[in-house]
Write a structure and sequence with these properties.
Length: 175
């Protein structure tokens, strides 16, 4: 494994973790390492702060190799802030904006078809090619009571941030 690890480490952009196959695994979760150290905290922000610090400290120890973390805290997140004053001037409510976004990015059951043996739901869904990326929001228009169709981009501000892709739990604690 050490020989293969040296050869693979020369490949740019690749990080490989190898471990011997064990017949019996007791406790813990499936990870990229043979041994696990679990850091837990009830405060997620504190855990996000200390997780990388502890991992970097462990990685500096010469007795340990291939130190990694299963913490996935850098998923892209897009938050929309509604300009309620502008929406109100145009006669558009926050619930109308919410419903329009759900129609564009969700799956809304709109009807039920009954046959002699079964029933089927008709699901409204926008084609997935029109749902990709933040630019999809530029193609959404909302019916105004005063100005016809209004682009959603005139009513909302986009904020790009990061958020955890998953928050692992063990017992009642986050890890």
């Amino acid at each position: 494994m050490a020989r293969l690890n040296r050869e693979v480490s020369a490949i740019s952009g690749v990080r490989l973790f190898m471990q011997a196959v064990q017949d019996i695994n007791i406790g813990g979760r499936l990870t990229a390492a043979q041994y696990q150290y679990t850091l837990t905290d009830t405060d997620l922000s504190e855990l996000n702060q200390w997780g990388p610090i502890v991992m970097n400290a462990l990685a500096k120890l010469p007795q340990l190799t291939d130190v990694t973390s299963d913490q996935q805290s850098s998923g892209p997140q897009l938050t929309l802030s509604i300009d309620r004053d502008a929406a109100s001037r145009l006669g558009i409510t926050a619930s109308t904006i919410d419903n329009t976004l759900y129609d564009a990015f969700g799956q809304r059951p709109i009807a039920q078809v009954y046959t002699r043996l079964s029933q089927y739901y008709v699901i409204e869904q926008v084609d997935s090619q029109f749902q990709l990326g933040p630019d999809a929001l530029k193609r959404i228009y909302i019916a105004s009571q005063t100005s016809g169709m209004v682009p959603l981009s005139e009513l909302v501000t986009l904020h790009s941030t990061t958020a955890p892709l998953a928050v692992n739990n063990q017992g009642n604690s986050r890890q």
